[in-house]
Model the fold of this input.
Amino acid sequence: MSDSVVRWQPLRDMITLREAMDHMFGDAMVRPGGEEAFGAGGPAVDMYQTADDVIVKATVPGLAPEDIDVSITGDTLTIKGEFKEEDKVEKDQYVYQERRFGQFCRQMTLPTRVKHDKAKADFENGVLTLRLPKAEEAKPKSIKIKVK
Done:
């Protein structure tokens, strides 16, 4: 059994406490009330590639397809929308208010060039699915090796 002596460094613990306090106050100031439901700047998004397409799925519960705007500029995909408040309820009547209302805009860089004019968008059960066909130059190409 090995006994070792560890030197106590009180400042090391104080720095950790300070970082924890900075983190706590930083979170409170940056995200006041509810952005964690949609992350910073919009809905949760999955993006993946197949051999022919880039697939994007965005979770937008409570929105109708006409409340969502999708655009592609260069290699940037933008999803915009607005959650509208249904009923006017006074602030002092609320017990909880966690649902988010207002506009959102989510932008992401596409991993490869796509054919903008061939893109398809489907909306089902609060999930927006975009199928973006890859440009021909972005698709993998096989090269045959000749034996001499």
In short: The chain has two domains: 10-36, 41-87+98-138. Residues 29-37 have pLDDT under 50 and may be disordered. The beta strands are 45-49, 53-59, 68-73, 76-83, 102-109, 120-124, 127-133. The two ends are 68 Å apart (CA to CA).
